[in-house]
Write a structure and sequence with these properties.
heterodimer, A: 249 residues, mainly alpha, 11 helices, 0% strand, elongated, B: 617 residues, alpha/beta, 7-stranded mixed sheet, 5-stranded antiparallel sheet
Chain lengths: 249, 617
């Protein structure tokens, strides 16, 4: 019998589809390792029929998952069980979550980004905060004006507590090229036209240009308002992102 | 590889090959399905990854063209959007042999592309499922076009003969639509579509409220729902559309049909074998003029030497679309100086597309006067009015008013596709707008507000023009390159694209109609014509009758082995059967002698089902 190590990123995540993820997103994110590990014993119950009529699973009150296109192959359920038995190993994610910057550097970068983009809640929580750290690092690694970043943040720190910080004269006019790159990075997830080599697919759905358009990134529309496109956006709904727009960035 | 003789050998696992394999397999026939490329990602996560890898590839693609998510293997190389490089992150000349799969030699270029992997081009298609109209099948005789278009022929089949197969294919694909639209155009439906229409977008409704009832070039405008191979509710164990707006190139949730559905169903009959990575390069014919084999090279992922093989059947189907089919046939010697199936000398000729006049602009507030300034140069974004594009399927409505009018006795008909995709296609919006504003030094709330005003008011409409094969298009052709071969040593296609004056005259008339439409709808005319540069010429740019034209491809490759009533001037008969070889069928868009104004996939699928019936008797 093979005792291959089953990992979340290499074996479990590839079993899930974007549709699975979207259908569960109001409850939890199936693409998140910690979440799936935490709920694994209940999740596996949902894969298996209870034997009662009506398509119910072994988890009370829940149908067999996924409802569309239908139950997973037995080999997948077995694999999921093995994963649980082996302690829910993580495996190798497609990109490393950054651990820097932190503290003042991060909070200054986030608040400056909020002012420069006009989006006042980006970069603060969850994936949004990860994005902010990634963008700070990308500007350092990919911008030809990287040498100005920390000086710009220092200048920002000197005015950021003002009632009406003079961003035009203290930031935009002295650092025009870097400001443009920062804005374009938040709005398009690209710098010099390029996506991040490893985390491009993670960053793209959080690009702000789509939110400015009151829409959603192509290929990512988790909102579950039926035929949302027949209505004008209103109260944050009918955009394709809907209630999920606030989650990140 | 094996010594089995199959009932039918089908080459190509796109919608035509997959549907035929399914239908024949269901009828108890033993079928071998040969696919040049690798498998499509299965819908159900069977033995490995789901579509997520392709979705991620799309998300991170710098140039998001139709082919971006999908494999491009040198052994089964595909034609990418002309002008885009093979890593989808830069631009090249569409004419350069080292940067493109095709070698293009025409004065202008064929601006369309296809996939070579399981499921074929339906992986990236939009999903539009329009039927041809009854008059489309005999446009040449109905509009007395013989003097103007010598060499043009009518279809040897009628709408009534096709109708039951249209209905069948709509059920197989899962088409959501409103049959009353076709009924109003004279195209009767014997049964309703299997699903109710996809909702028309807010943009459609708003534009409709401006344009419905307006008379332009003698036709009354009506904005109508588009039938599409996209679930409006759960169907065939696939969910209803959730408006991911990435139909081209990839539906992340499989609400859009793609032919891997029928590959799976074909295999489930127990009578179909599919063999991937098997590139057919030649058809062999015996002394009795019947096909006695198709030769292929089966390549491997690990780069080891390809294995040669021959597949044998009682019947053979080439379902390899309109460029690869003539490539295979022209590479197949026969007799008397002819290559296989080519006694008519029509194989590879009459390559056609629906050339698209893409137009775009900003919707403006009611009362804005555009008559003295149609391009809206004097306006500011404060004058724009939202339509809220970038939401829902990429197109949910069209204007059919010009599909079948008396104009066809002089110039080409067109269908208007209304896009929900803002200025993605012509300009790379919304990124292009964000970059433009940032580069102007704008920032913060000012930038966000203006970006919002610009993007929410964007609209594009594509005018898709018909082509009719005739002597003028005989030189629009696919031949074999004498110089360039692919990684397997097979000659690459040489494409010499050419348009007839009939179509180009239609383009000019469509431009006038479009400008009038924009004015009446309150949309600024911001369409520009761009020749490109010396190093990157635009494939669709030309000067005609003193006018500058820039067409784009619709992704429709048509006409290179046209069907007809006469073996002297056509390649196949009404059953898509070669006039020259009774056990050879060429099925797909290549058989269309005219393009009319419907996206071709539904008609190709209907023909697939019709020919499968013929073959299984």
């Amino acid at each position: 019998m093979s005792t291959e190590t089953i990992t979340f990123y290499q074996h479990i995540l590839p079993m899930f589809t974007q549709y699975d993820r979207v259908m569960m997103l109001l409850r939890f994110d199936m693409y998140d390792y910690e979440t799936v590990k935490k709920w694994a014993p209940r999740i596996i119950l949902t894969f298996q029929p209870s034997g009662e009529p009506g398509g119910w699973s072994k988890l009370e009150g829940t149908h067999v998952m996924p409802v569309i296109p239908g139950p997973l192959p037995n080999s997948f359920i077995q694999q999921f069980q093995t994963w649980i038995d082996q302690g829910c190993q993580k495996g190798t994610p497609p990109f490393e979550v950054p651990t820097t910057p932190t503290g003042d550097t991060l909070s200054q970068f986030v608040s400056l980004s909020q002012h420069l983009t006009g989006f006042d809640n980006i970069g603060e929580k969850g994936n949004g905060q990860i994005l902010a750290m990634m963008y700070y690092n990308r500007l350092h690694n990919e911008s030809s004006h990287a040498h100005n970043i920390d000086k710009m943040l220092k200048d920002w720190s000197s005015i950021m507590s003002d009632a009406e910080p003079d961003i035009q004269n203290v930031i935009v006019t002295p650092y025009p090229a870097l400001v443009k790159e920062l804005i374009i990075l938040w709005y398009t997830a690209t710098i010099n036209g390029a996506y991040d080599a490893k985390a491009g697919a993670f960053q793209y759905p959080m690009a702000l240009a789509w939110r400015a358009a009151r829409a959603h990134p192509q290929g990512w529309a988790p909102e579950n308002t039926p035929s949302y496109w027949r209505l004008a956006p209103a109260n944050g709904l009918n955009t394709g992102l809907g209630q999920f727009a606030a989650n990140n960035p | 590889m094996s010594n089995t003789t199959y009932d039918t050998v089908i080459v190509g696992s796109g919608i035509v090959g997959a549907m035929m394999a399914y239908k024949l397999g269901k009828a108890g026939k033993k079928v071998l399905l040969l696919e040049a490329g690798p498998p499509a990602t299965p819908h159900i996560a069977m033995n490995g990854k789901t579509k997520q890898a392709e979705i991620d590839k799309f998300f991170a693609a710098v140039i998001k063209t139709p082919g971006a998510p999908y494999a491009n293997n040198p052994n089964a190389e595909k034609q990418i959007s002309p002008g885009v490089n093979k890593s989808f992150d830069g631009f090249v000349s569409y004419k350069s042999p080292k940067d493109n799969y095709w070698i293009q030699t025409g004065k202008t270029g064929m601006d369309s592309m296809y996939e070579r992997s399981g499921g074929g081009t339906t992986q990236h298609w939009l999903g539009t499922c329009l039927r041809l109209l009854p008059d489309d099948f005999n446009v040449v005789s109905k509009y007395k076009l013989a003097p103007q278009l010598p060499g043009a022929i009518d279809w040897p089949i009628t709408y009534d003969e096709m109708e039951p197969y249209y209905t069948q294919s709509e059920n197989e694909i899962g088409v959501s639509g409103d049959a009353s639209v076709d009924e109003a155009l004279g195209a009767h439906h014997s049964a309703d579509y299997p699903m109710l229409p996809i909702a028309q977008s807010y943009l459609d409704q708003t534009i409709g409220s401006k344009l419905n009832g307006q008379v332009i070039q003698n036709q009354t405008i009506n904005v109508v729902s588009t039938p599409q191979g996209r679930n409006s509710k759960e169907y065939d164990k696939r969910p209803g559309c959730m408006g991911n707006s990435s139909c081209v190139p990839i539906c992340p949730i499989n609400a859009k049909y793609d032919a891997s559905v029928h590959i799976r169903k074909a295999l489930a009959t127990g009578n179909v074998t599919i063999q991937y990575r098997s590139v057919v390069y030649q058809v062999t014919v015996g002394r009795d003029d019947k096909v006695n084999g198709v030769k292929y090279k089966q390549w491997n992922q690990d780069g080891s030497a390809p294995i040669e093989g021959t597949a044998i059947g009682s019947n053979y189907v080439l379902a390899t679309h309109a460029v690869e089919t003539p490539k295979i046939l022209l590479n197949s010697p026969w007799k008397d100086g002819n290559t296989v199936a080519n006694s008519s000398d029509q194989v590879g000729r009459n390559l056609m597309d629906h050339i698209c006049m893409v137009t775009w602009g900003h919707f403006t507030k009611s009362g804005t006067d555009l008559s003295s300034d149609p391009t809206g140069k004097s306006l500011s974004p404060d004058d724009y009015e939202p339509l809220y594009p970038y939401r829902g399927p990429l197109s949910t409505s069209g204007i059919p008013a010009y599909r079948n009018t008396t104009q066809r006795s002089e110039y080409a008909a067109w269908r208007i596709e209304i896009g929900n995709d803002g200025w993605i296609w012509p300009a790379g919006a919304p990124n292009s707008d964000a970059i433009y504003l940032a580069n102007q030094g704008k920032w913060g709330a000012d930038l966000k507000t203006e970006l919002r005003q610009r993007t929410t008011s964007q609209i594009r409409m594509a005018f898709e023009l018909e082509s009719i094969s005739c002597d003028e298009t005989a030189d629009s052709r696919v031949t074999l390159s004498s110089e360039y071969k692919d990684a397997l040593g097979i000659p690459r296609p040489q494409v010499n694209f050419k348009l007839s004056n009939y179509t180009l005259n239609g383009y000019l008339k469509a431009t006038e109609a479009a400008k009038e439409m924009y004015l009446k709808a309150g949309i600024t005319w911001e369409t520009t014509i761009d020749a490109g540069s010396e190093s990157q010429p635009n494939p669709g740019y030309l000067e005609y009758n003193g006018e500058k034209i820039q067409y784009r491809g619709a992704g429709h490759l048509i006409g290179t082995n046209r069907m007809g009533s006469n073996k002297a001037d056509s390649v196949v008969n009404a059953d898509c059967q070669s006039w020259d070889h009774s056990n050879l069928y060429l099925v797909g868009c290549g058989v269309f002698p005219t393009t009319a104004t419907a996206n071709p996939t539904l008609t190709a699928a209907a023909l697939a089902l019709k020919v499968a019936d013929k073959i299984s008797g």
